[in-house]
Amino acid sequence: xxxxxxxxxxxxxxxxxxxxxxxxxxxxxxxxxxxxxxxxxxxxxxxxxxxxxxxxxxxxxxxxxxxxxxxxxxxxxxxxxxxxxxxxxxxxxxxxxxxxxxxxxxxxxxxxxxxxxxxxxxxxxxxxxxxxxxxxxxxxxxxxxxxxxxxxxxxxxxxxxxxxxxxxxxxxxxxxxxxxxxxxxxxxxxxxxxxxxxxxxxxxxxxxxxxxxxxxxxxxxxxxxxxxxxxxxxxxxxxxxxxxxxxxxxxxxxxxxxxxxxxxxxxxxxxxxxxxxxxxxxxxxxxxxxxxxxxxxxxxxxxxxxxxxxxxxxxxxxxxxxxxxxxxxxxxxxxxxxxxxxxxxxxxxxxxxxxxxxxxxxxxxxxxxxxxxxxxxxxxxxxxxxx
Length: 387
Description:
The protein is of the alpha/beta class. Helix 6 (about 125-140) links the parallel strand 5 and strand 6 (about 140-145). The model has no long low-confidence stretch (mean pLDDT about 95). The strands form 2 sheets. Strands 3-2-1-4-5-6 form a 6-stranded parallel β-sheet, sandwiched between helices. It has a 6-stranded parallel β-sheet with strand order 9-8-7-10-11-12, with helices on both faces. Helix 4 packs across helix 5 (about 90-105). The chain has helices spanning about 10-20, 20-25, 40-50, 65-80, 90-105, 125-140, 150-155, 190-200, 220-230, 255-260, 275-280, 295-300, 315-320, 335-345, 345-365, 365-385, and strands at about 5-10, 30-35, 50-55, 85-90, 110-115, 140-145, 205-210, 235-240, 265-270, 285, 305-310, 325-330. It contains 16 helices and 12 strands.
């Protein structure tokens, strides 16, 4: 019998997109059970990853009563299944999963930190989120920040004993399959057809953003900078790929109006496969306020796109300025405009960044390296349990 491993995220899309393929890989060595909310979507992810699932309703907001119910339900599930390891991701799944696991006596409780929403919080909300973070880490056996920048933030805030902390491999929660994210999969004809569908001319320079369309991803600054850009250059497009979320961190009304009405801004919503859109783009723009270790930047780089990113942890570890991209200050619309304009007007710089993009990802963040590093941790704890 293989030892049981339970992986928990707040919503199933995190299992599918942030950890894609990893659960199926781990199932070769452990009896993996995926736990998340949204029963139907979770079932689909379980089928795709070929692992068992357990539905546990969780919210992404602060909902104390619902959270307590989730802890109790998960506690009884853990008592029944007796896993060797519980590994959580995302803040809400972290506190619920680590607390229930501690109460249920799970031997090894692991938590990956892939971003800290509290960085942007203030006042009472910040105090509550600080408390939750400390409580999560207190219940965990080991805490894995997925970037070295996050490691430093956790240390600065003294959220836990430093001995609990470890960054695996070179960072990232899942690495990247560079054979999958490769522009060679897409022909000129395929790219041309998609450009026609999106009403992008062959000589248009396309800036692309991939992710949730919300304020803390820097979309307000991005749209405003782009509007300044097209005042001087009409052969530019902005391609937005990702879901518009209006309940958390909504955009400014005037920005939302531009996205919906400006013909130079193309918003295609959530896409299961983002590679075709990278393939028709020229440059990724990712002006996020906070990240863990952004998959999008690795994906775009593997597809040979230069990247303009915020000077935040994760982004500034993947990108070296003027080598494979440009790094700008957070929330700085003028710097964002300047960098976008520079890549438009300086073809030598653009080509240099483009030529360096893929090789850096292949060298540092290949997926099997990250998966094996995580598996090594699991085997260490499981062998310790057996002894």
